[in-house]
UniProtKB/TrEMBL annotation:
Region (Disordered): 314-338
Key word Nucleotide-binding present: yes
Database matches in InterPro entries: AAA+_ATPase, ABC_Ni/Peptide_Import, ABC_transporter-like_ATP-bd, ABC_transporter-like_CS, Oligopep_ABC_C, P-loop_NTPase
Name of the featured protein: ABC transporter ATP-binding protein
Keyword Lipid metabolism included in the entry's annotation: no
Location of the protein in the cell: Cell membrane
Length: 338
């Protein structure tokens, strides 16, 4: 049984459709990187996993199953149990995710319950300074606050950790250290990770699988080395070509042309069609269904036809993507930094 199963999920906000039939699966102990531009639906999907959406959000179709439990159908008590025992969350802004009125140690004790060893759990995230439990969140650096949030999220060894851009607000050195803490604790506990990120090389380096979102749908998914190495969807290729951290030295970056869509209802066809150099007439009015390309599931009418051309970087202007995409053909992951 899948640890996480998202099926045809549709989430609407007033005058905006955030998810337009999203599908996603994650197996126990697996790490899945969810990537895409801002506005693609990543954060909405991550919040939907724990039914943490704002009150203005409305689910109009689809379902989310966590460990077989239908998240949107659970009564309040059962939902609290699911969140407490099976789910952990780490958000982008660590200070905002902690209670500013409570000391760090008191917040961690609320998670652990009576008898919990606060010092042990802080030491697991490399915070063994005795002053930390007595500090308020605003007295910590961003990296320290994020480690506290990770300690709280992992204290109960959840089956699934949802991490929404947890290192985006940190500098590069601290970002790497915090990522190491998350993935090492998850491996130790057998926790599955849903990692929402813009950092394609980091996702390629750390995650087992990758799902690429666009227009509220997962347009490509599969093993990380396949999705980010042998690109099969034009949007994945364009996204890789615009990522500074994935670019070879001397290569001029080209942004994805046009703007992401703002949907107010179901997309009539492929949402990427207005920006896609390979779009044809049917892309405008016929929604693509998943097509199997190598080990990837791809939402593209021309996926099979374009497989070779996309994997060679032809989905974006010449020079924007080197052959092999984010993960070079020799199997080595790019270490080029922004």
């Amino acid at each position: 049984m899948s640890l996480l199963s998202v099926r045809n999920l549709v989430i609407d906000y007033p005058r905006t459709r955030a998810l337009d039939g999203a599908d996603l699966t994650l197996q126990p102990g697996e790490s899945l990187g969810l990537v895409g531009e801002s506005g693609s639906g990543k954060s909405t999907l991550g919040s939907a996993v724990g039914r943490l959406l704002p009150t203005t959000a409305r689910r109009t179709d689809g379902e989310v199953l966590v460990a077989g439990e239908p998240v949107f159908e659970l009564p309040a008590a059962r939902l609290r149990h699911l969140r407490r025992k099976h789910l952990g969350f780490v958000f982008q802004d660590p200070i905002a995710s902690l209670d500013p009125t409570m000391r760090v140690g008191a917040q961690l004790r609320l998670v652990l319950g009576r008898g919990g060893d606060v010092g042990f759990h802080l030491a697991r995230v490399r915070l063994d300074d005795p002053r930390v439990p007595r500090a308020y969140p605003h007295q910590l650096s961003g990296g320290m606050a994020q480690r506290v949030a990770i300690a709280m999220a992992m204290a109960t060894s959840p089956e699934l950790l949802v991490a929404d851009e947890p290192t985006a607000a940190l500098d590069s050195q601290v970002r790497e250290e915090v990522s190491n803490v998350v993935f090492s604790l998850a491996a130790e506990a057998g926790t599955g990770i849903l990692w929402l990120s813009h950092d394609l090389p980091a996702v390629a380096r750390r995650c087992d699988r990758v799902a690429v979102m666009y227009g509220g749908r997962v347009v490509e998914s599969g093993p990380a080395r396949e999705v980010l190495g042998d690109l099969a969807h034009p949007y994945t290729a364009a996204l890789a070509g615009s990522a500074p951290a994935a670019a070879a030295h001397g290569v001029r970056l080209r942004p994805v042309p046009g703007r992401p869509p703002v949907l107010d209802g179901p997309s009539a066809g492929c949402a990427f069609a207005p920006r896609c150099p390979f779009a044809e007439e049917r892309c405008e009015h016929e929604r693509p269904v998943p097509v199997r390309v190598r080990e990837q599931d791809v939402l593209c009418h021309r996926a099979g036809e374009l497989e070779l051309r996309v994997s060679q970087g032809d989905a974006v202007p010449e020079g924007a993507v080197s052959e092999g995409g984010v993960v070079p053909q020799d199997g080595a992951v790019s270490e080029v930094k922004a």
